[in-house]
Every structure is written in structure tokens, then in C-alpha cells.
Design a protein that fits this description.
Alpha-D-Glucose-1,6-Bisphosphate, Chain A, domain 4; 3 helices; globular
Length: 137
């Protein structure tokens, strides 16, 4: 049996994308949970709730619910595009200093290697768009 680092016993296939940016953690967090940021990473039309269990749906049919939220630090939610037959778990973390912050998107419970690579490309593009939008502020 071949073991791959992209698949774990505890959370299935997973992928992570991170980027360090020259902004404070507060700036990055506030952008991510604000309307513009949510539209970039979660999807257009989505309203992000604050309470555990709060559901969301994007204009393109992605659905899920908030599973955890630690203000200024971490957001955990289920994430299921309309053409998937399973939920995945998405975790976004923000950590750093007043001058430099690392933004991480980590997704678990993907269906397999192909879906993992699709999501790697997706979260890489999302990260680039978030970084570009932060630079314009």
C-alpha cells in the first residue's frame, strides 16, 4: 500500500494553501470576514454568520454551515459545491504580527487525488485574489 501525505486516516484527502502578506492579522481577518472578502473566498452572494451552525449558500450553489469561529484567528465550516455528493471541511487561519501575517486555507474530506488537485488550484487562485484585494485597500 502506498501512503501519500495528501491522505490521512483522520481526515481523508486534504489540501492546504498559505500565503504570508505584509499586513496585520487584524487587517487580514477583518477583510476575510467582511462582505468583499467573503465574496472572494466563500463565493458571491454568501452571508457569513457568526453563530455555530449558521448555514450559508452562495449564488453558485455552494452550501455549508459554520462549525467553529475564533475571532481574529480561525474559521471552520463545511463546504459543499452544488455538484458534489459529499461535504468537506474548510478551515481558514490567520496568524502573525502587526507587520506580517500568514493566511491559510486548509480543506479536508476531499473525494480523492483529482478533487484534491482541483481544490489546490482553486484555493491558490482564491489566495491570489485575496492578496490582490488587500493590496488595493
Amino acid at each position: 500500500m502506498t501512503k501519500t501525505t495528501a491522505k490521512t486516516a483522520g481526515s481523508g484527502w486534504q489540501v492546504g494553501v498559505s500565503q504570508t502578506v505584509p499586513y496585520s492579522g487584524t487587517q487580514v481577518w477583518d477583510f476575510l470576514v467582511g462582505r468583499e472578502g467573503v465574496g472572494i473566498w466563500l463565493g458571491p452572494g454568501a452571508e457569513l454568520g457568526h453563530e455555530l451552525g449558521a448555514a450559508y449558500e452562495t449564488a453558485n450553489g455552494t452550501t455549508g454551515e459554520i462549525r467553529g469561529r475564533s475571532e481574529g484567528d480561525k474559521l471552520r465550516l463545511t463546504w459543499r459545491p452544488k455538484d458534489w455528493d459529499h461535504d468537506s471541511t474548510l478551515q481558514i487561519t490567520v496568524s502573525g504580527t502587526d507587520q506580517k501575517t500568514t493566511l491559510r486555507f486548509h480543506q479536508e474530506w476531499l473525494a480523492g487525488a483529482d478533487e484534491r488537485e482541483e481544490q489546490r488550484a482553486y484555493w491558490t487562485e482564491v489566495t491570489e485574489r485575496v492578496v490582490a484585494a488587500l493590496a488595493e485597500r
